[in-house]
Amino acid sequence: MNFYILTLFPEMVSQAMHTSIIGKAVERGLLHIEAINIRDYTRDKHMKTDDYPYGGGAGMVMQAQPVYDAYCAVKERIGYTPRTVYLTPQGPTFTQNMAKEMAIEKNMVFLCGHYEGVDERVLEEIVTDYVSIGDYVLTGGELPAMVMVDAISRMVPGVLTNETSGISESFEGGLLEYPQYTRPFQWNQKEAPGVLLSGDHQKIEEWRREQSILRTQKYRPDLLKEADLTIKEKALYRISDL
Length: 242
Ligand code: ADE
Prior knowledge:
- By secondary structure, the chain is α/β, with parallel strands linked by helices.
- The protein has helices at about 10-15, 20-25, 65-80, 95-100, 120-125, 140-155, 200-220, 230-235; strands at about 1-5, 30-35, 50, 60, 85, 105-110, 130, 185, 190.
- The strands form three sheets. It has a five-stranded parallel sheet, with helices on both faces. A two-stranded antiparallel ribbon has the order 3-4. The protein has a two-stranded antiparallel ribbon with strand order 8-9.
- Strand 8 and strand 9 (about 190) form a beta hairpin.
- Helix 3 runs parallel beside helix 5 and helix 4 (about 95-100) packs across helix 6.
- The longest helix is centred in the C-terminal third of the chain and has 19 residues, at about 200-220.
- It is elongated, with a radius of gyration of 22 Å.
- It binds adenine.
- Adenine (ADE) binds near residues 89, 137 and 141.
């Protein structure tokens, strides 16, 4: 999968996206992550990419022309109109389901805004999805773009080497993940749950399922309405359909 990130701060993106699991997937050729410097596309003799907002007000607005030309250069390389995300607190909040759904794309473009935003006319021209990563305001779209690229990338087949690690994790089936333990058996006067050492795989699965439901009930009860639970589980944990 190819990610093209349109930004005024390409070094911020390049650094972060070439380490750890994502970096390995890039090396293995499963992912291509490219930061495109919007400033390279300005036609202004002073290399300017922003200007004062019409109507007045604080801050600067990113101009349409450099953004559009940077986008067109990418679109030409791809050969069709790509799915293009504008990172903004005004969009719907990014979810695991969105990450999964986007992972089927071959190419995606991310536009990172800065200052007071981007000229509305270029957004109307190129953006297919407006996405927020949460109800708080950041200084730019780079971190949100990297959050999305990370979450989408791990849903691309082959990126996670242990194939099951994408299946039994938080939000699968609408539940949080069960707690994990490793050696030593006893640490800080606390023992690991005995069932995990029993060798009884069915018991272990049952215990993990229970932990997932209890955790979700405790920390994210809002998720339970949409979770995949059996009628029996709903009765057992007193979860209503209302
Ligand atoms: N840009 C600034 N804040 C943001 C947020 N919360 N999500 C996405 N883009 C943003």
